[in-house]
Each structure stands twice: as C-alpha cells, then as structure tokens.
Design goal:
It holds the Pfam family Phos_pyr_kin. One of its GO terms (cellular component) is cytosol. GO terms for molecular function: ATP binding; hydroxymethylpyrimidine kinase activity; phosphomethylpyrimidine kinase activity. Pathway: Cofactor biosynthesis; thiamine diphosphate biosynthesis. By secondary structure, the chain is an alpha/beta fold. The chain has one domain: Ribokinase (UDP-N-acetylmuramoyl-L-alanine:D-glutamate ligase). The chain is 36% helix and 20% strand. It is built from 8 helices and 9 strands. Helix 1 crosses helix 7 and helix 2 packs parallel to helix 3. The longest helix is centred in the C-terminal third of the chain and has 17 residues. It is globular.
C-alpha cells in the first residue's frame, strides 16, 4: 500500500507524566490535525492534575541529539518550542534551530505559569529574550510572561497592545499576547501584532477549572496549522477555535484541574 503523505511537526518540550500538557498534549494536538508528530523531550516532570512534584532536566546534548535524529531523516514543516527551563539548554537549542532547515517556529515561552508562579531564573529569561525570541515566527506569551518580557503591568486591552509592541521589538515576527489570565471581559481575548497589523482576537470564555494544558495545546495547534500551510493569522484563529472546543469537553480524570479534551469530537455523540 502506498504511504499516506502527511505534514510533519516537531515539538521540543517537557514530558507531563499526567498526560495533560507538554509533549503529550502537543502530540495529541498534532494527531487531531492529521499532522505527524515528532518530539525532543527537554525535561521529565512528575506531575498530575494536582501539581508538579519533581522536574529532571535532560542534558542539552540529549535534546539536540533528538532534534538531529528527526531533522536528518524527515522534513519538518513546523516546530513548537515549549519548556526549556535553563540557559544552557536554551542556548543549545537556539544554536541548533539557527543552523538547520525547518518550517516556522512557534515559541511558547514557558517562564511563568498562568497563575503567576515563576518557573525559570533570570539567566534563562535573558537567554530566551536574546536567543530564542528572534527565531520565533509566532511567540505566545501569557499575561505574566508578557509582563516579564515587556517590563510593564498588564491590566487593560491597551496594556496588552503596548506589551505586544514592546515584545515584537525583541525580534519575533508575530507576538500573540494571550488573555486567558486577564480579568473580567478580557478573559479569552488575545492580541496579535506582526509589526504592522494589530488584531484583537476574542472568543467566548469557557467557565471550567479544567484548563490544564491550554497553553501547550494552543501553541501546538498553531504549529500544526502552519505545517498544513495556513497563513499565520489564520493558523492562530483556527487554533483558538480548537482550544475553545477542547475546553468545553475536559476529561474526567484526577482530583485537581483536569486536562482539556484534545479529541473532543470523540467525547460526545
């Protein structure tokens, strides 16, 4: 039988033992979009719906070897970069992505949780800012990450727009400031800026505590759409629609904040 032609995406991110976020969420998202998913694991986390209890980072040489194994054999139509955690790993991955031929790179700058908990140190933030952001076709910071990168408080829609302008100046071709952590009516509103065009992208917020993996899933869905050939703004719009639908059908697993339903069409009649 003749092989089925398929787009390929690569995720460079951490593993979530609970299956709700990280590599696991990325691969499920790629599969939903009929994109072949490949991966380079950057960290092993012990976590579940209640939280993270341990993180073990892989050596930079291990991560870059995984990337080399993929790109030496397959065409990579898009890349999603997630948890990198420390400066040496950020620098090693940035060096590698700069010298290999790949599709557009979507960077989810995993620096601060949606709840506002700092996840990486100042040296890693500086490395992300100077080494990784200039490689990003699309950067997807949440409210707290945008605050850190832009150096300003973000309370209003105009704050989100100004933060997008400041972060764009750091080198990413497109900045998507996510509004999931914004107060009131701004929850669910994201701001897109590509240096010329400013767009406000809004969806009706879904009232659920089961939001585990939304950031990972959004960036992976954007990468999947880019791999399939969608223009950047269309890729973001479609990815937002996908995440919103997945939030409406979370999975009944665990005793904490559960994961969203990546294969939501299979979850109901």
């Amino acid at each position: 039988m003749k092989p089925f032609p398929v787009a390929t995406a690569l995720t460079i991110a951490g593993s979530d033992s609970g299956g709700g976020a990280g590599i696991q969420a990325d691969l499920r998202t790629f599969s939903f979009h009929r994109v072949h998913g490949t991966s380079a694991v950057t960290a092993i986390t012990a976590q579940n719906t209640r939280g993270v209890t341990r993180v073990d980072l892989l050596p930079p040489e291990s991560v870059t070897a995984q990337v080399d194994a993929v790109v030496s054999d397959m065409r990579v139509d898009a890349v999603k970069v997630g948890m990198l955690a420390q400066r040496p790993l950020i620098e090693a991955v940035a060096d590698q992505l700069s010298r290999v031929s790949l599709g557009p790179i979507v960077v989810d700058p995993v620096m601060v949780s949606r709840a506002g908990s700092r996840l990486i140190d100042d040296a890693a933030v500086d490395a992300l800012r100077t080494r990784m952001l200039p490689l990003a076709a699309i950067l997807t910071p949440n409210r707290h990450e945008a605050k850190l990168l832009a150096g300003m408080d973000i309370e209003t829609l105009e704050d989100m727009r100004e933060a997008a302008r400041r972060i764009h100046a750091l080198g990413s071709r497109v900045v998507l400031v996510k509004g999931g952590g914004m107060p009131g009516a701004l929850r669910g509103t994201d701001v897109w800026f590509d240096g010329t065009r400013m767009e406000t992208l809004s969806v009706a917020p879904v009232d659920t505590p089961n939001t585990h993996g939304t950031g990972c899933t959004l960036s992976a869905a954007i990468a999947a759409r880019l791999a399939l050939g969608a223009p950047p703004l269309e890729a973001v719009r479609l990815a937002k629609e996908y995440v919103t639908s997945a939030l409406r059908y979370p999975l009944a697993v665990g005793h904490g904040n559960g994961p969203i339903g990546h294969f939501f069409p299979l979850m109901h009649d």
